[in-house]
Structure prediction request, 310 residues.
Amino acid sequence: MIITVTCNPALDRSLTVPQFSADAVNRATGSRLDPGGKGVNVSKVLNAIDADSIATGFLGGSAGSAIASALDTLGIRHDFVRVAGETRTNLKIYDPVRTTYTDINEPGDPISAEDIAQLEEKLLALAKPGDLVLLAGSAPKGLAENATARWAQLLKERGVLVAADQDGGQLKAMLSAKPFLIKPNDNELKELLALPDTELTTLSQAALQLVRSGIAHVAISLGERGALFADEQGVLFAEGVRVNAVSTVGAGDALTAALLYALENNLSREDTAKLAVGTATAKVTCPGSSPPSMEMIQRYRDQVIVTALQ
Prediction:
């Protein structure tokens, strides 16, 4: 079973705004609402490829109710802690003329110590030995940066495999917990480890150092360049496939979803890399944070070129 944990989910409002400009009146030609947040997006992609998951985290207010209702409609199992505050609404603006993607993300209302304790209890009850638990996204106000690292330690002690898609202080704290998988992007890893650049050689060496430190799998998303995948056998580079992107929202989450699916189904290293980049590529051709179909994923997966890096 795959369990996704999103502590700071969002209702994503995506607008299509040709010639988007700051300090001016802009008129949208299209609009959509999607349940969002990293873990929620991962569950959406897993659902689209017929893989089961349970989504959990914090939900509150009318936006939280809208997310729960949307997940019900999609047939995605969920078990969130309901909180007093309002779940945030994030704005995503796509300009098809300039081909730009602008994200305006709210911080989210604070959560209480009681809410945090309730989610910890729920998570430890849901996860069974051998399950994959993804801890993903930003920390809302009230949740300490080292809280998810503590949960990772508790889960590992119970035989649960922990994956993390976080950045900043959360990811730094998570490294000490030695999760099974981490999935930063190139700039997040550069900032975390104070790397001089984001060249493939630099990132590959850093990923291998993390593997040697006790993290079994390190995946680094590179945007349109593709992705790097490191484990004890070395580093694979999966080259990105050129497409006309409609929305980059959730592309990294799509890659994470494919990784979890591949790990749960024991796919080979090369097949995992192809599936992950193929899924992320298919995602950017879809509007908002809507997931791609398996047919789309297979089409792009077959175009991904994978090479081993020295």
In short: The CA atoms of residues 211 and 231 lie 6 Å apart. The chain has a mean pLDDT of 96.
